[in-house]
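Section 5.1 Outputs to date
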Amino acid sequence: MNRKVLVSILTTAAAVSMFACSANVAMAEESKKLVFWDKAEYVDDYASKMKIVVDAFAAENDVEIDYVNVPAADMKQKLMAAIEAGNAPDLIVGDNTLVGQFGALDQLADVTDIIDDFDFTDAAKGVGLFGDVEYMVPQAFTAPGMYVRKDIWEAAGLEMPTTWEELKEQAAQVNDPANGFYGLGFAMGASGGGDAETFVRTMILDFGGITVDEEGNVVVNSQETIDAFTFIKSLYTEGLISPDAVTGDDMFNNQVYLAGTAGVIINAGSVQASMKNDNPELYENTQIVPVPAGPAGQYICSGSNCFGVIASGANVETAKDFIRYYFTDVDSYEGMIEVMGSMWQPVLNGLDETDFWKDEGNQPWMASAKAAVNSYYPAPTDERAMTGFASQYGVKACQEMLINDLSPEEAVGIFEESLLELYAE
């Protein structure tokens, strides 16, 4: 073969090969990917249902998705390490406190456009609001309810309590420490969990107090907060709660209620699910009611699961598209809520009319969700607010009051000092 022809053929082949390689690279660059870290739930069917949504989105939008269930206790550490290493996921789901911490660190993308696209409840719209910008899209509320031993209340001729004062009066009537039964099962241990701090802050709001106002000013030291602390102290000093509750962790209330040694606890739906499976008799003898109201009204400090789009991720828009896809199929969304039973409540308007939420046993959970506020309400959502809650300043102040017999005024002063130091930073 002529040398010039051979060279020409080889050159043409090389050019074709190079073009093909370039085309493949371009296609690879254009192909969409999504790395999605989802908070692992106790209900196995949740992950199965989410995987169906993930696979459908992937197929319909030609997206390669790496879907990973991460235990809640591991999420923060893993995410911090991934961000530092430059290989963060594009999309995460976690509780609002955890996801919000990354918003406070400027790691989350603005998702106001998604919030505007759907009919979220008013309570849901406030979950991810940092100033005027939404940085989290709530997936579901995890509002608490109050568990009451219906059989014991009925035997004493008592109605279900609707206010804190009613609850205290009724708890005193059924209280029987000599036989190992206490009217109430509220723990106050600074264990690192959120139950006790949520209880303290709910009481402050219900009595008309505020820890930090809308402008970020520490205003916790008020007569209203002192009244709330005075009421909290009375529950313990009058023997309506077991003495060991002062150092009890987040599992304390679960354990005493399931053991039949407390008449009332406040918890999410996980206790109800546990009873239904493992203690059907206690399940039948339990009535769920909304958390009571105080002199200033009913504020239910609640958590929620939230989507967060990592701003440094390579696929911000694809992550946003998935969230839109997730909420577009309302039937699928409601099905996922119902799979979680009473542990989750919807964040979209109009879903409280389904048969599931018309069920008498589920209605109190929906009522709690409608009264839900952030645990640091009405403070601005920022790192300080979340640090203050996570540090359990309210619980630690109450412990000084309960263990070291400080006055409510002194305990509130300690709470104020902790917050002032935090907000000064």
